[in-house]
Each structure stands twice: as structure tokens, then as C-alpha cells.
Design a protein that fits this description.
The complex is a heterodimer of chains A (about 220) and B (about 325). With about 220 residues, chain A is α+β, with helices and mostly antiparallel strands. Chain A contains four helices and 13 strands. In chain A, the strands form three sheets. Chain A has a seven-stranded mixed beta barrel with strand order 5-12-9-10-7-6-13. A four-stranded antiparallel β-sheet of chain A has the order 1-2-4-3, with helices on one face. Chain B has two domains: about 190 residues, no CATH class; about 120 residues, Cyclophilin-like (Cyclophilin). In chain B, a hairpin with a 7-residue loop joins strand 14 and strand 15. Classes of the chains: A alpha+beta (about 220), B alpha+beta (about 325). Chains A and B meet through strand 1, strand 2, strand 3 and strand 4 of A and strand 16, strand 19, strand 20 and helix 5 of B.
Chain lengths: ~220, ~325
């Protein structure tokens, strides 16, 4: 679903969703971060929440007339200066396949590649944290090689464990706690991504970079 | 203190929810029926956002360690104080040592599945990221970040509160009914991918009942009904979502995101149940059916205003009663 112009849609009366035009890129994400900063300052906006090349705006109170905030979004989108990436870099050790990667076989089937090829491709890039979401401390990573893109599951699974490394469409990420997921889990890591007693509670921030180090491959 | 004598699965401490931490991946949590929680708090002259206990599975029993004014709202669970039947949706007084028992909800005049135990002054657990709601996925907030177990001792504030007992409210389930062809209904605004679905899917969405399957909980309601199909397969970039969003995974059976939903997702969204009707959905029992009624932005705001008026009116009536020296029972 890639469009040429920004798309704005409703999430009930709770929020608006702004979806940036074009393919998913880091440059677009830098503009999303800038747009989030601007929108977050507007009265009536409760939170401006970046996603993958998109932005959710939640309302303090839904406005009777929507077009004012919609116009503002489009106007700011064309005028904001992209925020530069100034993140830290983290290495995460991953065990690919086996018990901790129950859907590796589905990725093999979908891509037609071997486990070793998938692991080599998945662990090659330096990923950028585009956004936090899904559950406390989870980050969406940009920069996955499209050769291992695999559609989300037909039916989401009710429980995947903390530390699950997974692929959903052309995105990848690591779950920060046990819970339901529609993504394909291919490996696991044992980092603590979220601790409410820490300030800030989340380990990663948007703009941070992540490398997956292959600890082991279970074939 | 109140001591939990028996709790089914997933009784949790909830207020009206957690905002402001979506950027950390922390979702809303909060009462599945925010009207019932607010009403319980209003009866006790608490802040509407004070924390109560949400009870979805019965029987449920607690012992009050000291005299306390309380109210049970939401589903009618034939509440008893020791052996005495008491009214739901009513400010009640318990003496130290008395036991409150809630039974499986009656098939009463209004359809409901969750009860709320509200306490004068609110359940006294710490604020975490601005809320007392239990964040089950993150294991924080509420009572130690988890559902209540038998033997738990839940802190409540000391005496000297302004609460009184001896009066009640009529449940909004009785005065604000909303149905389509005799089936409980909720209003829905189309969402981003609505137009990507086939005409037959649109017809099915608006004109057939949807069964709430047993795989439904605070995270989401998995529905069973006609298959909803996009014209072609859709794979979206992950984006923010809110409680009420109706996602359609590739299998074609919709899932409504509820209070513990992830704050982001990527399945196609055919619509969103409007905020004004989330309390209805929060009370819909497993196995029951729900209908979706398409509405406009203005109709959705009017519905929200109607629920706000109900809450404001309840507050006004309670304050009026108490300021005229309404008697204790």
C-alpha cells in the first residue's frame, strides 16, 4: 500500500493516522520524527506517535471540524526539516531457528532460501530503530533486506516469548515481552528492552541502530 | 485493606487507562467498561478515574478488613454481603470482616459480563507511568503488574472519606440501549483500508451478526462470521492503532482491538468501533453476537456527547442527593 500523496484516515474518534507517500525510507522517517515533534506541540493533540513512515495523532478531545488538523498535517509535512539520526549503536546476540524460531520454516517456504541464507541476510544490515510500539519497549527496525520479506501470519499466534526476533512483511523487530503476535519468529535474544523502574524505561529510542550478531543457528 | 478470598482468572485493578506513553510502546489498559467504573466512582464521590477491580470471571469473593463504603457496578452478579443480597449500582457500607460475594452474571435486563468493585477513595496502588491500570503485557501497574490471586491483600485508603451509602444509579445498559434488528450493536467509522475490501465484505460487515468467540479477552475480540476479503492481499507498514480498531488478518475473520491491545499493528483495518460505544463492547459476553452500524463523524461525536451527558447527570444527581443530607442506610 504505497501511495504518491500522504493519506490521512480516521481511527474512530480517538485518533488520526497520517501515512507518508512513497517507499519506506530512513529519510522519510526523519521527516516523520520532525512532524511528530511539531504536531505534539499543538493544543488538542494528546500524543503524536511515529510508526513506520507514518504518524498517529491522538486527540485530547475529538474536534467537531476535522479539516483544520488535517490541513495542518499536510502543510507541516511539506515544510518540516527532517530530523537527523543521532542514535547509539547496539549489538544483539541471536540464536536463529530451533525452539526459539518456530516460524523459520515458514520463511524458508515463502522465500525459497535456506536457513543459512536467511540468517546471513537478516544479520547483515545495521538496522535503524524507526519507532517504538506494539508493546512496552518493542522497536520497529527499518532496513531489512526485502529478499527475506514474509507476509504476516494468516492468523496471529496467541503467545510468542520475550526476545523473539521476527519478520512481518518487509519489517523486522524483537519482542520485549511475551504476548500475541502476527509475525514470523525466526530467532531469539535475551536482552531486557523495558524496565519500568529505569528512566527512561525503554532501552532503545528512535534513531538508535541495531546489529544482530549470530550466536548460533539451529537447522 | 481488602483480602481476596477467591478470584477467577484475570481480575485486575484498572482505572480509566494510561495515556502519554504510546511512544514507549505502552498501550492504554484501563476498564473495559469505562462507564461502569466511572459510575461506581461517582456513587462513592471519587474522582471518575479512581482505580477499581474489574472482574470478568466468577465467583469472586473479598473480605473487607475495615468498614468501607463500596459499590458494585457493571454486570449484575447478584452481590451478597455475608448472606444478605445487596443491590448492584448502589453505594453500600461494609463493616470490618464482612465478605462480599459475586456470582455469575444474571441474564438480567441488560447484557453484561464484567463487574466493577469500586471503593471509597479508590484502590490505593501506586501510579505507574501516570495510571493505576494493570499493564498485563508489561507486567507493571495495578496490583504488582498482574491479575489478582486468592490471598492477595489490596490496599485501600483509610477512613474519613466523604462517601455515603444508601442510593444508586440506573445502569446505562438500561437507559442507553443500542441495537440493530434486536442484536446489540456498536457504531463504526470506516478505517483506512475500508475501500480495499470487496462489496460482499462491506455487505457482510454492516448487515450480518458477528459472534464473539472464546478466544476473546482484554487484548482483543476475535469474531466469527462471514469471511471479509480484500480485493487483493494487503501488507501494511506498522502504524499506531487504538482500542476499537477492527483488523482483518489474512484469514478473513475480524479482530476488534480492546483495552490491552497493542498500540500499533499492521493488519488491514476495515473500521473502528467509536469511543462512545467501547463500553458496550467491553460488556459483550463471549458467545454473544454484535452488529456493526455505520456512522458519520458527527454521529460518532453525538454518541460520545450522549455518554458524557449520562456521566455528568449521574454526578449531578449524586451530589444533589448528598448535599441534601441523603440518609445512610
Amino acid at each position: 500500500m504505497i501511495s504518491e500523496r500522504p493519506r490521512i484516515s480516521l481511527l474512530g474518534t480517538t485518533a488520526l493516522l497520517f501515512d507518508a507517500p512513497g517507499e519506506t525510507t530512513l529519510e522519510t522517517q526523519c521527516r516523520i520524527w520532525a512532524l511528530a515533534n511539531e504536531m505534539g506541540r499543538l493544543p488538542g493533540v494528546q500524543e503524536a506517535v511515529p510508526g513506520m513512515n507514518n504518524l498517529m495523532i491522538t486527540f485530547v478531545e475529538p474536534p467537531r471540524r476535522l479539516h483544520e488538523i488535517q490541513d495542518r498535517l499536510v502543510e507541516l509535512w511539506t515544510s518540516v526539516e527532517p530530523l537527523p539520526v543521532q542514535g547509539r549503536c547496539f549489538d544483539l546476540s541471536v540464536t536463529y531457528g530451533g525452539e526459539g524460531g518456530p516460524h523459520m520454516a515458514d520463511v524458508v517456504t515463502h522465500t525459497g532460501m535456506s536457513v543459512d541464507e536467511i540468517v546471513a541476510i537478516h544479520s547483515a544490515p545495521i538496522y535503524t530503530v524507526y519507532a517504538l510500539g506494539s508493546h512496552p519497549g518493542y522497536c520497529y527496525l527499518g532496513g531489512m533486506d526485502l529478499r527475506i520479506a514474509t507476509p504476516r501470519r494468516q492468523i496471529p499466534v496467541l503467545r510468542i516469548p520475550c526476545g523473539a526476533v521476527s519478520i512481518g512483511g518487509d519489517q523486522t523487530g524483537v519482542s520485549a515481552s511475551e504476548g500475541p503476535s502476527g509475525w514470523n519468529t525466526i530467532g531469539s535474544t535475551d536482552v531486557v528492552f523495558f524496565d519500568v523502574a529505569r528512566t527512561p524505561p525503554a532501552l532503545f529510542r528512535p534513531g538508535d541502530r541495531v546489529r544482530f550478531k549470530v550466536e548460533r543457528v539451529v537447522r | 485493606m481488602i483480602e481476596v478470598l477467591s478470584a477467577g482468572a484475570l481480575a485486575t485493578v484498572q482505572d480509566l487507562g494510561r495515556t502519554g506513553s504510546l511512544n514507549l510502546g505502552v498501550g492504554w489498559s484501563g476498564a473495559m467498561d469505562p462507564l461502569a467504573l466511572a459510575a461506581g466512582n461517582i456513587l462513592l464521590r471519587n474522582d471518575e478515574n479512581a482505580a477499581g477491580i474489574e472482574i470478568p470471571v466468577f465467583p469472586f469473593r473479598v473480605r473487607f478488613a475495615r468498614s468501607t463504603v463500596f459499590a458494585v457496578t457493571g454486570a449484575d452478579c447478584a452481590p451478597r454481603l455475608d448472606d444478605r443480597p445487596i443491590l448492584p449500582w448502589w453505594a453500600q457500607c461494609a463493616e470490618a470482616g464482612q465478605v462480599l460475594s459475586l456470582a455469575v452474571p444474571k441474564k438480567a435486563n441488560w447484557q453484561a459480563s464484567r463487574a466493577y468493585l469500586c471503593i471509597a477513595g479508590g484502590i490505593d496502588v501506586p501510579l505507574v507511568l501516570g495510571s493505576r491500570s494493570t499493564q498485563l503485557r508489561g507486567a507493571f501497574g495495578g496490583h504488582q503488574g498482574r491479575p489478582l490471586h486468592e490471598g492477595d491483600v489490596v490496599p485501600i485508603p483509610g477512613p474519613g472519606r466523604q462517601a455515603r451509602s444508601g442510593f444508586g444509579l440506573i445502569p446505562p445498559g438500561l437507559v442507553l440501549p443500542f441495537e440493530a434488528d434486536g442484536v446489540p450493536a456498536v457504531r463504526v467509522l470506516p478505517a483506512a483500508e475500508y475501500e480495499c475490501f470487496t462489496p460482499a465484505s462491506h455487505d457482510a460487515l454492516w448487515s450480518t451478526p458477528w459472534k464473539i468467540t472464546p478466544q476473546s479477552n482484554r487484548y482483543g475480540y476475535r469474531l466469527a462470521g462471514s469471511e471479509l476479503k480484500p480485493v487483493r492481499p494487503l501488507e501494511l507498514r506498522s502504524h499506531g492503532i487504538v482500542p476499537g480498531v477492527i483488523q482483518v488478518p489474512h484469514g478473513g475473520q475480524p479482530i476488534i482491538q480492546m483495552r490491552d491491545a497493542q498500540p500499533s499493528g499492521g493488519y488491514p483495518k476495515i473500521g473502528t468501533v467509536v469511543e462512545a460505544d467501547l463500553w458496550r463492547l467491553g460488556q459483550a459476553p463471549i458467545g454473544s453476537h454484535v452488529r456493526f452500524v455505520r456512522c458519520s463523524w458527527d454521529q460518532a461525536l453525538d454518541a460520545l456527547a450522549e455518554t458524557r451527558r449520562w456521566v455528568a447527570n449521574a454526578r449531578r444527581l449524586v451530589e444533589l442527593h448528598c448535599s441534601h443530607g441523603g440518609s445512610d442506610d
